[in-house]
Structures are given as C-alpha cells and as structure tokens.
Amino acid sequence: MSEQNTSQPNEKKFTCKLGNREARCGAPGCICVQYGPNEDECNCRCIRDVYRTIPNTSKEVTNVNEFIDKVKQNIDIAIFTINMAEMKLSEAEDFLKMFVPEIRIPESLQSKSVSLQIEKKTLKEIVSNLGLEISGTNT
User: What are φ and ψ of residue 12, in 5° steps?
Assistant: First the structure.
C-alpha cells in the first residue's frame, strides 16, 4: 500500500478556499489571494512553499516569485484568505512583509502570539485587525 500523504498522522491540516481554488496544507498553513474583482483570478498556496528559504527547483522559485509579484501589483484590491498555525506576531509580520515591506509591529505588541484564520479580507484589514502598522500610512 503506497502512501501519498507524507505528513505526520497527527499533523494539523489547514484549508484555504477562495473562488474556485483551494489549498490543503500542513503547518504552518495556507494562503489564497484573489487579485481583483474577478473570483476566477485567484491563487492558493501552502505557506511552506511560499516561505521556503531553499526552494526545490528554479521553476518553483519562478512560480513563487510570480505569485508574490502579482499580489504586490494588486495589493490595494487583493482579497486574502489565510489559515495559519499559532505563531509569534513577529513571524506573521515577517510573512506579510513579503507582500508589503513597510509593515511593522508596535512596541506594545512585540510579544503577542496570533493564529491567523482570515477569510476574504484586504491586507489593510488584516494589518488593522492584528494591530500592525504600515509605515507611511494612517492605517
């Protein structure tokens, strides 16, 4: 009997769905982004693939870079669905900085932990809900 799922049996699964796309991933979670008003213009990824420090292939690097670039190009109108494991707010900030480098944590929230379970929110809404700030704006 072959096993296609290489994750640990007790590993929590994270599901993200947006439009007609879906991702089911192990820790640390998943992200879906709708790039504009058209529900068909979206992409879902496992966060471990987006956030990997050592990609498996150059094609993977290209795909991830295209995903990040497309999000950045549409950042003001993009809709996010994110399902992530609990982590320090600084780790969530670090992840979100891939899309908006100006995000920062106020001093008072440095030690806070968060579990991101966000459905259909803009990045500004996510930043505001987390208590983060975008430097240069009045978010």
Answer: -70, 140
Comparing 54 with 58, the larger pLDDT belongs to 58
Backbone angles phi, psi at 44, to 5 degrees: -125, 140
Q: Rounded to whole angstroms, how far apart are CA atoms 28 and 12?
A: 9
Average pLDDT, the chain: 84
More confident residue, 135 or 16: 16
Tokens of 54: 């050592």
Query: Which residue do the tokens 């192990």 mark?
Result: 26
Element (H, E) at 63: helix 58-73
* Cα 42 to the center of its chain, rounded Å: 13
Q: What are phi and psi of 41, to 5 degrees?
A: -95, 75
Express each pLDDT in 26-40 by its tens digit.
Answer: 999 999 999 988 888
Number of Cβ within 10 Å of residue 128's Cβ equals 14
